[in-house]
C-alpha cells in the first residue's frame, strides 16, 4: 500500500498568528494555575469570612483538584471531536464563573461549588494547548513548542504564587477573585473571537480526515493499543513521583533533616523549576533533531531517581550540593516530559487531546494516591502533634517514607524498555 501523506494545502503559512493562538492557550494554563493556588494563600481570610474550620478549608481547596483531572478525558474527546475554539471558550468561561461563585460564597457548600467549577473548566487547559500546537504547527516543531509551553507553566509556578499573594494582600481575597473572574471572561471572549480550530493557510493539513473517518472506531483502536498503556504506565510512575516529592515533601525534608529555614528550603527547591524551564524546549528540539525520544525518557528517569536518592541520603551539606542536585533533578524531569510528545506521535492527530488526557489522568490519580500513601506512612510514624493540626515528622521517618519516590522512578525506568520509539515521526492514518 502506498504511503499516504497529509494533505498539501496553501504554500504560504502565516508566521505570527499561530503564536498568538498558542499564547492565548498558554495563558489559560497560567490562569487556571493561578486560581488553583489562590486559596492556599488566603486561608486565614477564608477561615474568618466563611466561619469554617481549617479542616473544611482543606476540603474547599481540594474540591478543584479532582475535577481538574477527572474531566480531562471528556474534554480531550470533545476538543478532538468538535475543535478547541468552542469547547475551550466554554471551559474558560466556566472557570471564571467558578471564580465568581467562590468570591461571593458565604459558606462551605457555595465555596466548594465554585472550586468544583474552577476544576472542571481548568481541566481543558493542558489538553487544549496540546491540540492547538498539533493543529497550528508542523509536527517537527511539536516537541519544542510543547516544551516551551511547559516552561511557561514552570515560570508561572515560580512567580505566580508570589504575585497572587501580593495581589490578595493588596485588595482582599474577594476583590482579587472578582478581578480573576473579569480576566477569565475577557480571555474567554478573546479566545472565541480569535481562535480557529486549525489554520487554513498551513502548508500541510495536520488533521487529514478521510470521508469515512470514524472517531469512535479510532478511539477504540487507541484504547486497545498496547503502546497507549505502556506510555501511560511510564508517565504514571515517572511523572507522578516528582510533583509529590518536589511539591509537597522536599521543603519539609530540607527544613526537618537539614535545618534550613523555610526561605532557604523554598529557594533551593525552586531550582528544579529553573532548570526544567530551560531544558524542556531544548530536549524537545534535540530529540526531534536526532529522531530519538526513548533515550531521553530513560536518561531523565535515571537521573531523577539517582538525584532523589542523593537528596535523601546526602554526601555533602554545602549549599552548592543542594542547589546543583535540585537543578539536575529538574533536568531529569524535563526529559521525562517527552512522554507527551511520544504519545502524540503514536496516536493519529485527530486524537491528540484524548491521548494526552489519558496520560494526564492516570499519572495525576497515581500522584494523589501516592501522596496519600506517603502521608499515611508519615502519620503512622509521626511524633506527638505540635497542635491539633500540625504533626512533627522525624528526619528518619521522612527518609524511610520518601524512599518510595526513587522506587517508583525505577519502575518507570524498567517500563521504558517496552516503549517503541516513534523516531520523532507523527502517525497520520490508522493502519
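^ C-alpha cells above, recovered residues below v
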Amino acid at each position: 500500500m502506498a504511503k499516504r501523506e497529509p494533505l498539501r494545502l496553501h504554500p504560504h503559512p502565516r508566521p505570527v498568528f499561530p503564536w498568538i493562538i498558542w499564547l492565548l492557550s498558554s495563558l489559560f494554563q497560567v490562569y487556571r494555575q493561578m486560581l488553583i493556588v489562590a486559596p492556599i494563600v488566603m486561608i486565614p481570610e477564608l477561615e474568618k469570612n466563611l466561619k469554617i474550620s481549617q479542616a473544611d478549608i482543606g476540603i474547599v481547596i481540594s474540591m478543584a483538584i479532582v475535577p481538574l483531572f477527572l474531566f480531562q478525558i471528556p474534554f480531550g474527546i470533545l476538543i478532538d471531536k468538535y475543535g478547541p475554539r468552542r469547547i475551550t471558550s466554554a471551559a474558560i468561561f466556566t472557570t471564571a464563573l467558578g471564580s465568581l461563585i467562590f468570591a461571593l460564597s458565604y459558606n462551605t457548600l457555595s465555596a466548594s461549588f465554585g472550586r468544583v467549577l474552577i476544576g472542571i473548566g481548568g481541566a481543558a487547559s493542558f489538553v487544549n494547548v496540546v491540540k492547538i500546537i498539533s493543529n497550528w504547527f508542523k509536527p517537527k516543531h511539536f516537541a519544542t513548542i510543547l516544551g516551551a509551553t511547559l516552561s511557561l507553566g514552570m515560570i508561572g509556578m515560580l512567580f505566580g504564587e508570589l504575585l497572587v499573594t501580593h495581589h490578595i494582600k493588596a485588595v482582599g481575597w474577594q476583590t482579587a477573585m472578582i478581578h480573576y473572574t473579569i480576566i477569565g471572561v475577557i480571555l474567554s471572549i478573546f479566545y472565541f473571537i480569535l481562535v480557529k480550530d486549525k489554520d487554513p493557510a498551513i502548508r500541510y493539513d495536520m488533521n487529514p480526515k478521510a470521508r469515512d473517518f470514524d472517531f469512535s472506531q479510532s478511539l477504540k483502536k487507541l484504547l486497545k493499543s498496547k503502546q497507549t498503556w505502556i506510555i501511560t504506565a511510564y508517565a504514571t510512575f515517572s511523572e507522578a513521583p516528582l510533583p509529590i516529592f518536589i511539591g509537597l515533601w522536599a521543603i519539609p525534608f530540607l527544613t526537618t533533616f537539614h535545618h534550613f529555614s523555610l526561605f532557604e528550603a523554598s529557594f533551593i527547591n525552586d531550582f528544579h523549576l529553573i532548570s526544567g524551564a530551560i531544558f524542556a524546549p531544548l530536549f524537545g528540539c534535540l530529540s526531534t533533531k536526532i529522531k530519538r525520544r526513548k533515550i531521553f525518557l530513560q536518561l531523565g528517569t535515571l537521573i531523577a531517581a539517582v538525584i532523589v536518592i542523593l537528596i535523601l541520603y546526602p554526601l555533602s551539606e554545602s549549599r552548592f550540593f543542594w542547589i546543583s542536585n535540585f537543578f539536575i533533578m529538574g533536568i531529569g524531569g524535563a526529559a521525562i516530559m517527552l512522554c507527551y510528545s511520544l504519545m502524540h506521535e503514536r496516536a493519529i492527530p485527530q486524537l491528540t487531546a484524548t491521548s494526552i488526557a489519558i496520560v494526564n489522568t492516570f499519572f495525576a490519580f497515581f500522584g494523589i494516591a501516592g501522596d496519600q500513601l506517603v502521608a499515611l506512612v508519615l502519620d503512622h510514624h509521626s511524633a506527638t502533634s505540635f497542635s491539633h493540626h500540625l504533626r512533627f515528622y522525624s528526619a528518619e521517618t521522612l527518609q524511610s517514607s520518601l524512599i518510595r519516590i526513587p522506587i517508583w522512578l525505577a519502575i518507570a525506568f524498567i517500563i521504558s524498555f517496552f516503549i517503541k520509539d516513534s523516531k520523532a515521526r507523527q502517525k497520520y492514518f490508522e493502519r
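The chain is about 75% helix and 0% strand.
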